[in-house]
Amino acid sequence: MRLAVVSDIHGNSFALEAVLEDIARQGVDATVNLGDTLSGPIDPRRTGDLLLEMNAATVRGNHDRYLVETGVFELGAVDRFALAQLDPRHVVWLESLPATRVVEGEVFLCHGTPRDDNAVWLDNFWTARSTTLPDEASVTAKAEGFDYPVLLCGHTHLERSVRLRDGRMVVNPGSVGLQTVHGSPDARYAIVEKRDGKWSVTQRVLGYDHEAAARRAEENGFPHWREALTTGWGGPEGLF
């Protein structure tokens, strides 16, 4: 079994198209999506069209939930923009997404952690620019009760894989559409593969036309996204 794993696209159709082209060359059996799909100032509608066409197994992210559960005047500026760009069919799709799901009985999908789409698992993302791995006890505790060989999460936009002592693998593929504190604007996704009964992961890093993405964000009224989109050095503070 060979699965492509995407997450945190954030409406960046330019990055998503590059990733989908690369996935098509990798010989995967399926693609799964860990959420935060459309909330971004670039091209939410085009991103939604691509994802509906792809029909990947998808879970909701915290921003997906905000779009369908939060009053429009309570949303942040980026989420308000994204919602205004969407067709009804995109919203219906977002409303249908589960918080978690299991693929092929072995691969567990969530956005943040199994119990909270707005919590972090493998990185202390929200502590300024820290990308430090939390302690072992914290990482292991969040996996308790989820006895699948592969546990997939996103949310932090930082790719990492951890092997628990019992052999289970926790994988964050990083972000397709928005790099922060990386020092690189390149799109990221992962491939998880079972071979001879053992699971492994390959992280993929792809260049794409990030200047075009930044120009589109500026045209849509969000110039403060430029640094993160074009350099990857920008932090998450103030983006949404």
Write the layout of secondary structure elements.
Elements: E1 2-6, H1 13-24, E2 30-33, H2 44-54, E3 57-58, H3 62-69, H4 77-85, H5 88-96, E4 101-103, E5 107-109, H6 136-142, E6 150-152, E7 160-163, E8 169-172, E9 187-195, E10 198-206, H7 210-219, H8 226-231
Parallel strand pairs: 1-2, 2-3, 5-6, 6-8
Antiparallel strand pairs: 1-9, 4-5, 7-8, 9-10
Which characteristics define this entry?
240 residues; Purple Acid Phosphatase, chain A, domain 2; five-stranded mixed beta sheet; 8 helices
How does the helix and strand content classify structurally? alpha/beta
What is the CATH class name? Alpha Beta
Instruction: Summarize the biggest pleated sheet.
Output: 5 strands, mixed
User: How would you sum up the global shape?
Assistant: globular
Q: What is the distance, rounded to the nearest whole angstrom, between the alpha carbons of the first and last residues?
A: 36 Å
Radius of gyration: 17 Å
How would you portray this structure in words?
With 240 residues, the chain is of the alpha/beta class. The chain has a single domain, classed as Purple Acid Phosphatase, chain A, domain 2 (4-Layer Sandwich). Helices cover 30% and strands 19% of the residues. It contains eight helices and ten strands. A five-stranded mixed β-sheet has the order 3-2-1-9-10. It has a five-stranded mixed β-sheet with strand order 4-5-6-8-7, with no helix packed on it. Strand 1 (2-6), helix 1 and strand 2 form a beta-alpha-beta unit. The model has no long low-confidence stretch (mean pLDDT 94). This is Metallophosphoesterase family protein. Belongs to the metallophosphoesterase superfamily. YfcE family. InterPro entries: Ap4A_hydrolase (IPR050126), Calcineurin-like_PHP_lpxH (IPR024654), Metallo-depent_PP-like (IPR029052), Pesterase_MJ0912 (IPR011152). Residues 1-193 form the Calcineurin-like phosphoesterase domain.
